[in-house]
Amino acid sequence: MELENKNIIITGASSGIGAAAARLFAREGANVILGARRQRELTVVAEEINQGDGGRAVLLCGDVSDPSYALSMVKLAEQEFGGLDGAFNNAGIVGEMTSIAAMTLENWNSVVAVNLTSAFHAAQAQIPALQRRGGGAIVFTSSFVGFSNGGMPGMSAYAASKAGMNGLVQSLAAEHASEGIRINSLLPGGTVTPAGGEGNDEVLAFISGLHPIKRMALPEEIAQAAVFMLSDRASFMTGTPMAVDGGMSVRLL
Hints:
By secondary structure, the chain is of the alpha/beta class. The chain contains 8 helices and 7 strands.
């Protein structure tokens, strides 16, 4: 029970890595506060948790690019469970796969708002709650794309947003380490999710072949890494971009 009695926010929790994390965190003893835009799918995940043997789940639908949403999630955690111990800020979008020359400003702004500005909103809301709790941990889902030599054609907006997130995480970690607040980023490789080619054998085969390990991750494998980062086993780890990418970052060096 790595997360026993910890109250943890999870965004992007209606499917993929976020849903897998919600179920796993609960099995590890956490009370989870679930966020996503899709009410029906999010409700299904919460009901599964509340009918299981692990922690409890509450949910709040919304858009992470809305600054009031992050505050509302924190308030829900404090009202329902008495405080906040951690967060897995996992919501994100890829956006248009196109060159900068062909990209619309609307796409650029949307990707940056959901992937990077939302991290700013989350930090502003969650860090004071962790300070009130006397410490805690935050994990942001970033990507090998935009990190080190992980450039990918057609993904400029996504890469810029994730690179910006990694910089934000490092600054936040330095600012709050002495308060017992650990802040790290998780860099998944290709993962079998609705946004990652699930159900399309041709796409899955292509993406799998890019990885030295020659397969894609299951959402549960990425969720396991998030459990570690939020648990006390990672008590001396902060400001770290941790790659769980099947060797993608090695291939691109």
